[in-house]
Design a protein that fits this description.
single chain; alpha+beta; Nuclear Transport Factor 2, Chain: A; 2 domains; 9-stranded antiparallel β-sheet; 3 helices
Length: about 150
């Protein structure tokens, strides 16, 4: 079991490296537009260790608040799009855990879990799962346990 967990962690890190390989992270928020800096500061008044990068047509700001690390996404005009936070499987709502344990992915290895906060106080959960053949899939659920496709 530890071998599979270690292998899945390595796969996540490698796949993450490929997805951010074209991104250049900038320390601090100084080189961001005033609109994005203002929107970020308004939404997250207490933050530290800020870094940012352009991802597609949005700005990703990685930061720390208290003991937690977050990834917040804003558009070029400073509109907040979403914030992602890594959480443990046990922190998922029970109904989402049950969906993963008994649904179509019950035999798949569970990997990283992200809580995704969206405008309008909506929350989703993104879970990376791996088949026995190590096929990776990203599955998303709303907080009621319904799979989002």
């Amino acid at each position: 079991m530890k071998k599979y967990i270690w292998l899945s962690l390595c796969m996540i890190l490698v796949s993450g490296a490929y997805s951010v390989s074209g991104q250049v992270y900038n320390k601090g928020l100084d080189n961001l537009s005033t609109e994005v800096r203002t929107a970020f500061s308004k939404k997250y008044a207490v933050s530290s260790e800020e870094n940012w990068a352009r991802v597609d047509h949005s700005i990703l700001i990685s930061f720390r608040s208290g003991n937690e690390y977050y990834d917040a996404f804003f558009d070029e005009k400073g509109k907040w799009l979403r914030t992602e936070t890594a959480i443990r499987f046990e922190q998922l709502p029970k109904i989402v855990q049950d969906s993963l344990k008994t649904g179509e992915f019950s035999t798949w290895q569970k990997g990283s879990v992200l809580k995704v906060e969206l405008p309008g106080a909506a929350e989703n959960y993104r879970i990376y799962v791996y088949s026995k053949d190590w096929n990776e899939m990203e599955v998303n659920f709303d907080k009621s346990g319904k799979r989002i496709i």
